Amino acid sequence: MKKSIIALASVLLVAFSSSAQKVEFEEYDLDNGMHVILHKDNSAPVVVVSTFYHVGAKDEQPDRTGMAHFFEHLLFEGTKNIKKGEWDNIVSSNGGSGNATTDDDRTYYYEVFPSNKLATGLWLESERLMHPVITQKGVDTQNEVVKEEKRLRVDNQPYGRFLEYVKKNMFKKHPYKGTTIGKMEHLDAATLDEFLAFNKKFYVPNNGTLVVAGDINIKEAKKMIQDYFGAIPRGKDIERNFPKEDPITQQINAKAYDPNIGIPAIMAAYRTPSMKTRDSRVLDMISTYLSTGRSSVLYKKLVDTKKMALQTGAINFSQEDYGTYILFGLPQGKTTLADIIKEIDEEVVKIQTDLISEKAYQKLQNQFENNFVNANSNVQGIASSLARYHVLFGNTNLINTEIDIFRSITREEIREVAKKYLNPNQRLILEYLPEKK
């Protein structure tokens, strides 16, 4: 009887999430190529205005790393109609909040306003695109800001450079080998003309997606969008032809040193396919199975039961062109780094050899259902997802249908994908060590 109740509850959860979580949206292109996505939700008097530009760290020149992230800061400096330092004041005085983020593949700006301030949000984002003021003074100001951010979040952060060292060893040709924050000497060397050229190339309407989500009138929003963005001239089309990586056919061994740590760590990293592939989603499920929560396989074995590790986990770091699957652990007591890898490898081999249990599989399905519900639970998350699915996946409606892909993944697929990608001859073993005194 208990099993029947659990089964019924699972069916009801799927049925509920399939219907109640459906996100309605409308999308179209302006004549200048800017893609527009509108989502109406009148449940609260709030509106999100966001612009998602298809430019990230991978679009930089090899000797000018950090440009994309730098522009995330620089484009808050001001415009022809917004004085230097006034951007945040305008947002807060109108009851709003905002921020921006950059990664290897994209740059995302957003504001959240009371719904009667939609015009203010659209004006701000159109100003950022049409009238940015890029001067040497602004560049110098933001150069210091970015340097301080790098010191705080990377240079002086324990384990803050592990991903940098993983990427450096995993990618030899593709620009993913760099870091989003870049090298400060590259930004120091950049001329004002180079900053202006970067803006002209990538901050054009045909490289941007505008999402307006929340308590809006669709007809009125369309008119305002046309008024604020329609006259911005189209830029040149951007061509991308990044070099392809050669397959990894034998284990890479590397070491990295960090002055901010006292306990070493070990990473096993595998190059995996684009986030757009089905295999990448299967790897998402494998990483959840191995390391999400205290009842996960690696935590329960290495931290809880054997007390060999202070921390352990699995990360499917999926990106537009490639992914990097990382297994890691921090040893405890007399445990060596080799001991950690041996124990992790044993669990990977189990996945490659045997089907995970039906109970573990059902738990995974429940976890992904829960993630799906949470991702679409507020208008800010919906706005971000709509833009991300359109730009990086080429299918906005994945906001509604991606969960169906996860639902259709079988235990057999989990086994086969683990066998395909997570092999010792296809990986990097990185020893991340305290810096020698």
List the uncertain runs: 1-20
The CATH homologous superfamily name of the largest domain equals: Metalloenzyme, LuxS/M16 peptidase-like
Strand arrangement, major sheet: 1-2-6-3-5-4
Q: Helix/strand/pairing class, anyone?
A: alpha+beta
CATH class of the largest domain: Alpha Beta
Overall spatial form? globular
- Tell me the total number of β-strands: 11
Average pLDDT figure: 93
Domain Peptidase M16 N-terminal: 36-181
Domain Peptidase M16 C-terminal: 190-367
Pfam family, one: Peptidase_M16_C
InterPro entries: Metalloenz_LuxS/M16, Pept_M16_N, Peptidase_M16, Peptidase_M16_C
Secondary structure blueprint with pairings:
Elements: H1 2-20, E1 26-29, E2 35-40, E3 46-53, H2 67-74, H3 87-93, E4 97-102, E5 107-114, H4 118-130, H5 136-155, H6 162-170, H7 184-189, H8 192-202, E6 208-214, H9 218-229, E7 252-258, E8 265-273, H10 278-291, H11 297-305, E9 309-318, E10 322-331, H12 337-353, H13 358-375, H14 379-393, H15 398-408, H16 411-421, E11 427-434
Parallel strand pairs: 2-6, 7-11
Antiparallel strand pairs: 1-2, 3-5, 3-6, 4-5, 8-10, 8-11, 9-10
Helix pairs in contact: 1-13, 4-9, 10-16, 12-16
